[in-house]
Amino acid sequence: MKNAQFKRRSIDNPYEVWKSTSGSHEWRVLKKYQLDDDKPYARWYCATMGPGTFGDYELGDEYVATIKAKGYKVEYLGSA
Question: For residue 1, is pLDDT > 90?
Answer without folding.
Answer: no
